């Protein structure tokens, strides 16, 4: 049965944006490196997730009422049919009772259902099957493209339940996921994985459109149709050598009016905003994607690696070489 009790999104102020602007801002969203698990366990149980750094986590409850203990220690009871996204992942647990210890999901025996989906079964016997808890869980890299800095502003737990009132079209997807997971028909694993991708995208889009969390300055900028065009342009082409005059033209105002409005809404100057955007993107490219430092500098419009490195250290607090994966860092002779 699908839980419809927590649809409270209608109480939030919707983000009034043209659909094409929302689409443009989110068109770079990708769920990369996705790995899903169908988990069936008999209570009492405790399963730990999120030990992998930088990976988002998605959980959909097919049967049972597990308790989610979030990275911050908050406890959420999940009803059958509910789905949650933890955009930054983090160490969290699914438990049959709040006070139970947990065991890392990686320590359970797993069988492969298809290329990206495996199954975990930790059950007493077939006689207890009706009492088992069934969860469809996914681990992924949540990539919002140039919007990636927004991940840090999202709440640690995002629920589909809070979006049902605003997006009733999610409900048939959840019901389809429930049927597929319960029926275990041919190809169900792949269908579940694709449905989970779509539901996760709805959760992210709903959060952006509702302007929730601590992203108030950015969201307020998007609520201003003219300023929203400027923000979209910066994120669309962060490597361009923008001038204040060009940005003011995007907004359709004078330079002084544009600069004053931008500072009042975002809390920073256009130059600082662009620099911080560039350095966050650079940190992502260099640290996660293994892009060479000089390539990142060129992509972001810097004429020299030295100038880029100075800007990076000023914003991030450390040189760009320190964010590279350990295997990619140069080693020194003993």
Question: What does this 3D model show about the protein?
Answer:
It is a single chain. By secondary structure, the protein is of the alpha+beta class. It folds into two domains: 9-210, Jelly Rolls (Sandwich), CATH 2.60.120.10; 224-328, Homeodomain-like (Arc Repressor Mutant, subunit A, Orthogonal Bundle). It is built from ten helices and twelve strands. It has helices at residues 19-26, 170-183, 188-210, 216-223, 225-236, 244-251, 255-266, 270-289, 293-299, 305-316, and strands at 30-41, 46-49, 56-63, 67-69, 75-77, 83-86, 92-95, 103-104, 110-114, 117-122, 133-143, 158-159. The strands form two sheets. Strands 9-10-1-11-3-6-12 form a seven-stranded mixed β-sheet, covered by helices on one side. The protein has a five-stranded mixed β-sheet with strand order 5-4-7-2-8, with no helix packed on it. A hairpin with a 5-residue loop joins strand 4 (67-69) and strand 5. Helix 2 (170-183) runs antiparallel to helix 3, helix 5 (225-236) packs across helix 6 and helix 8 packs across helix 10 (305-316). The radius of gyration is 22 Å and the shape is elongated. The model is unreliable at 1-20 and 328-334 (pLDDT under 50).
